[in-house]
Amino acid sequence: MTTNFDVGIAQAWTPEWTTGLDGYYKQAHNLLDEGQFGAALVFSPFNYEKGKVYGWELTNTYRKDRFSAYLNFAWSMAMGTNITSAQFNFAQDDLNYIATHYVNLDHDQRVTASGGVSYLWRETTLTADALFGSGLRRDEFGVPNGGHVPSYTTVNLAAFRPFDVWGIGKITGRLAIVNVFDKSYEIRDGTGIGVGAPQFGLRRAIYAAVNKSF
Asked: DSSP secondary-structure letter at 109?
């Protein structure tokens, strides 16, 4: 059983610029979660007797002529207590601690921010965006999910434009560079509730694509 509350407001400061603020709170009984127990990338469900998730999100969008931009910021807290199913997957010390304490869920990232810009130059749309994360949870000082992995920031670039091709018609060509500065960062370090192996973010990658609509 869950109880959800959500309230938000949006304000258009000018015809081009809009800001939004949203706050939420969820309280759950028998909160369902998933974990990776062991080295195999197979997720197993389990339940917390009680859970709560709350936070707020701030959004900004701007659009004028050929230029547009956005900036988002989010703060979140997700916690649970007392594991009531699939206890065989956990160490007894962790079960004892979680039975009497609220702990952060493994997918709880306290701060997330993203922003981007785009510009239409002739027929080509150029875009750039960035993502910041404060890091997912890890064990620390003997507390399950008591800390978090280091924060990370990635930057991406992309361009796309339409083309007229004889015999085919209009197609769209796209080129994207993900993680432009080849930032090496850890998503998980192999510790934490239901985290059986370390995982890393995508290194620099270049993608090219051609789309055709029918």
From this structure: -
Domain carrying residue 82: 2-211
| Contact yes or no for 12/85 (Cβ under 8 A) | no
DSSP code of 58?
A: E
Number of domains in the chain: 1
Contact 98, 77 (CB under 8 A): no
CATH number for 152: 2.40.170.20
CB 67 within 8 A of CB 110: no
And the tokens for 40? 């195999």
The 10s digit of each residue's pLDDT in 147-186 is: 999 999 999 999 999 988 887 888 899 999 999 999 999 9
Q: How far apart are CA 212 and CA 165, in angstroms?
A: 11
Could you tell me the pTM of the whole model? 0.87
Can you say how many angstroms the Cα of residue 130 is from the centroid of all Cα atoms in its chain?
13
CB 57 within 8 A of CB 22: yes
d(CA 116, CA 192): 32
Residues in a beta bridge with 25: 5, 54
Region of 153 on the Ramachandran plot (φ > 0 left; ψ -120 to 50 alpha; else beta): beta
- As to burial, measured by CB atoms within 10 angstroms (0-12 exposed, 13-18 middle, 19+ buried), residue 170 is exposed
